[in-house]
Amino acid sequence: MPTLPAKAAPAAASSNSSFFRSFHTPHLLWGRPITVGQGVFHLLLLACLTPWVTPPLALALGLVLAQTIGNPFVAQTKAFTPRLLQFSVVGLGFGMNAHAAVQAGQEGILLTVGSIFGTLVLGFFAGKWLGLGRHVVHLISCGTAICGGSAIAAIGPVLGAEDDALSVSLGTVFVLNAVALFAFPPIGHALHLSQQQFGLWCAIAIHDTSSVVGAAAAYGSQALEVATTVKLARALWIIPVAFGTAMVFKQKEAKITIPYFILGFIAAMVFNTYAPAYVPAAKALGPFMVRLAKAGLTLTLFFIGAGLSVSVVRSVGGRPYVLGMLLWLTVSIVSLCVICQAEHP
User: Fold this and answer.
1) Lowest-confidence region among 155-164, 214-223, 224-233
2) What would the DSSP string read from start to end of 57-89?
3) How far is the CA of 293 from the CAs of 17, 19, 87, 94, 263, in angstroms?
4) 284-317 burial, b for 16+ CB within 10 Å, e for fewer?
5) Is residue 42 part of a domain?
6) Of 200, 193, 197, 257, nearest in space to 233 by CA
7) In a domain, 3, yes or no
8) Is 142 part of a structural domain of the chain?
9) Where are the transmembrane segments (predicted)?
């Protein structure tokens, strides 16, 4: 195939090695320029749509891509990921029962409230001890306390945070999310946690909804139902925390972002619970939407992994990781102890 002038390679593949340059040299394929790196990306994308690639494996494939040849579509995946995650969450609602979800939400409400406020308070004092800026501390604390990157993206504009603070906070949370997705299911099996226990633990202790759902899905269907319900109820705390942030940081004209997609999840769950009794055809819609949602979640985790390049990980620095690890481990251990104690008083 004819070779076109080479474009600049991504940071992850900026080596002078001709091997890495070859991945980013465009060639004409059916009259259109395409690089080998773009071809690899599309092949991995298609693989993630097959039944053999699980959400954790999709994240791993994305991480490998990011650390080797780089993500050739960084801007596109970054913009598309939040929308795909929201669609996936709504789709999962078609596989859940409203009555069971309400019960799961009620069981997790006290632990949710306690962990949110405990994390914010601990983050404040730990951040001062580490000498980090107030904005970075508050963003990492909110990301750990509520729902990871979604909380950071919502609280950042309210806080008036600069891009550097947002990047550091998001990088910290995304790296810990990747660790949690792989670590939690084996820990759950080793401790012989029930489906209910593991789902609740995931929702409390893992930052992002994508990793919560991925870890819970790997553990079992009941764990997935509990984890998704409790996590989305937890995500609604973005609103009061955002208002509190505006008052504490004296941001009078701040715009509060409301996670409306949660309403879509509730509507899908109500439809799945009541519609089949009146519309028999609705029974077939639920499983179809859940399959689409799980495929969307797998792609979401692939995109997230593909965005975690070496440069992103290194740009965070040491102290934000220390803060993130301290908060994450504290929430994980304390919530696990509370959950196990409640099951075996």
Assistant:
1) 155-164
2) HHHHHHHHHHHTT--TTHHHHHHHHHHHHHHHH
3) 40, 37, 7, 9, 16
4) ebbeebbeebbbbbbbbbbbbbbbbbeebbeebe
5) no
6) 200
7) no
8) yes
9) 40-64, 84-102, 108-127, 139-159, 165-186, 198-220, 232-249, 256-275, 295-313, 325-344
**Helix, strand or coil, per DSSP, at residue 28:** strand
Rg of the chain, C-alpha, whole Å: 21
SS3 of residue 34 by DSSP: strand
Amino acid at 236: L
pLDDT digits (tens, 9 = 90+) for 274-318: 988 888 878 888 889 989 998 998 998 899 888 887 777 777 778
Predicted confidence (pLDDT) at residue 28 exceeds the cutoff of 80: no
Distance CA 345, CA 343 (A): 6
CA distance 224 to 55: 13
- List all residues 6 or more positions away from 86 whose beta carbon is below 8 Å from its beta carbon: 261, 264
- Mean pLDDT lowest among 38-42, 213-217, 232-236: 232-236
Instruction: Provide the 10 A C-beta neighbour count for residue 270.
Output: 15
- In 318-333, which positions are buried (b, 16+ CB within 10 angstroms) versus exposed (e)? ebbbebbebbbebbbe
The residue segments making up the domain with residue 217 are 74-343
Q: What is the tally of structural domains in the chain?
A: 1
Q: Which three-class secondary structure state does DSSP give residue 14?
A: coil
Q: How many CA atoms lie within 13 A of 307 on its CB side?
A: 24
Q: Record the tokens describing residue 210, joined without a space.
A: 């994508």
Residue 24 included in any domain: no
**How far, in Å, CA of 333 to CA of 191, rounded?**
13
Three-state SS annotation for 209-221: HHHHHHHHHHHCH
